[in-house]
TrEMBL record:
It comes from Mesohalobacter halotolerans. This is Methylmalonyl-CoA mutase. InterPro entries: Cbl-dep_enz_cat, MeMalonylCoA_mutase_a/b_cat. It comes from the Bacteria. PANTHER family: METHYLMALONYL-COA MUTASE, LARGE SUBUNIT, METHYLMALONYL-COA MUTASE, MITOCHONDRIAL-RELATED. SUPFAM superfamilies: Cobalamin (vitamin B12)-dependent enzymes (SSF51703). One of its GO terms (molecular function) is intramolecular transferase activity. Residues 149-418 form the Methylmalonyl-CoA mutase alpha/beta chain catalytic domain.
């Protein structure tokens, strides 16, 4: 549309908009329109070009529909490929050198695995994540770091599994700061070949806070660039995203499909390279073809019918998202620096400080859920009191932590709806 059509309209400054809002408020405080968040960021009622800080964040030219499969599925990949899957995520100790398809290999026993470089192959191997999740190293710190050094030397890559932070209840600022600190811990422990390009693979869980999750992934690229630049490391970053389990529930479980759809949208718009959907019934049913097909089709609809693959940087230029990206980057970098001043990430894990901060945030979120400030459709609002779930549950949905000797207190995954489910299930009619 020709620009001269708008010449008769004068530009309205941010100051003028704010003055107009204050007039319309008729004496009420403008600050009452600000919304405070757990990330320490105030959401304003409007955003304007006058205060916009333009960002130049690289975004992948494409994203791949990724599916988790079993070893049995791997023997017959023609079917999922014909159904639209473009990359596969498998847990195994087999290198699978006979396929050239994009592959994410979740290594079960890294101490026995023979790592090697191959195009389109990403290893999910992260000793610090294992330490956080189990409370112990695979062997001990020295051996694990030596193994990771060998992994780096053979593959020119580092993998960071950051999904635990979201699924245990950390807010977005914490997720970003802890992911960055985890990466920096490896930078301090490992020796790098400065002449080579480092392949960074970061695994992320996505929540339902739509715009914040888009900004989270963009801020992650900003923070990674800051750390790598500081360390003089040339890098290539792959972000592998999937919807988290933190906000999912067994009650009105079909709503999980809506949650995972918007979460996949955030993952795509935020700049993920691989997007793997979570099945809507994962928390209470065993793996089944029906829910796998639904999860795959959600991504295919976004890609082929909603055209989410036509633009590589669709969120660029949004004043709101750029504001959130800047704010999250600054808040997370500040927290990252405080962690480093206090002995570093691994030391803070052994001191229990990281666990304590996540626990505090989780308890805060639980209170928001209990007083309906945080709404989960079908769970604490618009719930179906006649919903019966006892007979549909196929696995333990409330796993208990086995008591064992650990070096530190593990960080555990937990769902917001768990307590409510524990109260409702015994009350169901048999």
């Amino acid at each position: 549309m020709p620009n001269h059509l708008f010449e008769e309209f004068d530009a309205v400054s941010e100051k003028a908009w704010k003055q107009k809002i204050q007039v319309d408020l008729k004496g009420k405080d403008y600050n009452q329109l600000l919304t405070s968040t757990d990330e320490g960021i105030d959401i304003k009622p409007f955003y304007h070009r006058d205060s916009h800080q333009k960002l130049n964040i690289p975004s992948p030219s494409k994203w791949l529909v990724t599916e988790k499969i079993s070893l049995d599925d791997f023997e017959n990949l023609e079917q999922p490929v014909s159904q639209g899957s473009e990359a596969f995520w498998i847990k195994s100790n087999t290198p699978f050198t006979h396929t050239k398809l994009p592959l994410i290999l979740d290594v079960k026993q890294p101490e026995k695995f023979n790592f090697e470089f191959r195009e389109n192959l990403i290893y999910k191997f992260d000793p610090i994540h294992h330490l956080m999740q189990t409370g112990n190293w695979y062997s001990n710190k020295k051996q694990d770091i030596n193994l990771y050094q060998s992994f780096l030397d053979k593959t020119d890559s580092i993998s960071i599994d950051a999904r635990l932070y979201h699924n245990s209840g950390a807010n977005i600022t914490q997720q970003l700061a802890y992911t960055t600190s985890q990466l920096y811990s490896y930078f301090k422990e490992l020796n790098f070949n400065q002449t080579k390009t480092l392949n960074l693979n970061i695994f992320c869980s996505i929540g339902p806070n739509y715009f914040f999750e888009i900004a989270k992934l963009k801020a992650l690229r900003v923070l990674v660039n800051t750390i790598c630049k500081h360390q003089n490391i040339n890098y290539n970053l792959n972000i592998i995203s999937e919807p988290g389990l933190h906000h999912m529930s067994i009650y009105d479980y079909n709503v999980n499909m809506l949650r995972s759809t918007t979460e996949c949208m955030s993952a795509i718009l935020g700049g993920s390279n691989y997007v793997c959907n979570t099945t809507y019934d994962k928390i209470f049913k065993n793996k089944n073809q029906f829910s796998q097909r639904i999860a795959r089709n959600q991504l295919l609809i976004l890609k082929n019918e909603s055209y989410f693959d036509k633009v590589s940087n669709p969120s660029d230029g949004s004043y709101y998202i750029d504001y959130l990206t800047n704010a999250l980057s600054e808040k997370s970098l500040k927290l990252f620096k405080s962690i480093e001043k206090s002995g570093g990430f691994i030391q803070q894990l052994f001191d229990g400080k990281i666990q304590h901060k996540i626990d505090e945030q989780f308890q805060k979120t639980l209170k928001q859920f209990e007083n309906n400030t945080l709404k989960l459709i079908g769970v604490n609002v618009f719930e179906n009191e006649d919903d019966q779930m006892k007979k549909q549950i196929e696995k333990d949905i409330f796993p208990k932590m086995k008591k064992r000797k650990t070096l530190l207190r593990p960080i555990t995954e937990r769902r917001i709806a768990k307590q409510l489910e524990q109260q409702r299930l015994p009350q169901e009619s048999v």
